[in-house]
């Protein structure tokens, strides 16, 4: 039997076999190690080595992933202990392999994130995330409570935005630490104090972005329950676009940043001015329309038969009143005096002829311009 010739693979063929075995066998890996040789290329890619006491592996995070890592892990630096997830890739031209990273987090946070996820499911099951229990935000707030660090950038972002959009509102600041061991307790105290005061229309709970560890206070169960129990509407404005905490789910509204939180709770003064002008125009149009209808209705009444009949009746009554007035004038005792006649009275009795005058009586003779009293002799 003829033996098959021995085939010796080329370097490329061998490398390809190794590449296939490694990439298929380790298409999804998770590894913990120390960051070494961290650098960012001109294209925005992150290059580094993951190492421990016994080995190291070259690693890369392409630009899109690197941008996300920089946002969620701003404290990443040389020597950071991390957990990386990704896939193994063989680079044939150099006969090397590297880890292509699609997720990077600080070591030790895995258990914390697991606990947060359990708490999230617990609170969700209790109904704390339900939209039905969320309170509406006021349309025109007069006093806005703000819970954040008095020296942080979040406060400046909020106040400057409010001043530009809705300067009629007053900011009521309650300082609280927004990271660290005491942050959650201080935020709970600040929230309960502002809520019980009844002195604010809405509360913004805010801080700027940071690492996942920096935002841990806003995944605290006590803070979540304080937000849910508040009677004042609460806006959670924690972190940046990619950061979502439990406080965001429990709050009545969520804003991606402190600036957007200030936008969410206020109208813009220019929009309000336009709205008022629109209301004014609609009111004027409505009044003009109603006035036109009334004018037409009055014109129709003026020309109607019933109105003409009424006017004729009024004319007849006026004529009758005029005749009665003339008759009363004629019957007035003073009228003859105006014509030059006199009136003679003996007490209340009118004397119409001489024989009617009692002897030895006092008579009053009246003219238009006066009267005299005489005595008739016997």
Please tell me about this protein's structure:
The protein is 42% helix and 24% strand. It is α/β, with parallel strands linked by helices. The protein folds into 4 domains: 11-107, Beta Barrel (OB fold (Dihydrolipoamide Acetyltransferase, E2P)); 112-267, Succinyl-CoA synthetase domains (Rossmann fold, 3-Layer(aba) Sandwich); 270-309; 334-375, no CATH class. Helix 4 packs parallel to helix 8 and helix 5 (183-197) runs parallel beside helix 6 (221-229). It starts with 10 loop residues before the first helix and ends with a strand.
Whole-number tally of structural domains = 4
> Considering the protein shown, what is the CATH homologous superfamily of the largest domain?
Succinyl-CoA synthetase domains
Helix content: 40-55%
Mean pLDDT: 87
- Main-sheet strand order equals 1-2-3-5-4
One letter per element, helices H and strands E, the order comes to HEEEHEEHEHEHEHEHEHHHHEEEE
Say how many strands there are: 14
Structural class: alpha/beta
End-to-end separation: 197 Å
Strand count, sense and barrel status of the largest sheet are: 5 strands, mixed, barrel
The CATH topology name of the largest domain reads Rossmann fold
Tell me the fraction of residues in β-strands, as a range.
15-25%
Oligomer: single chain
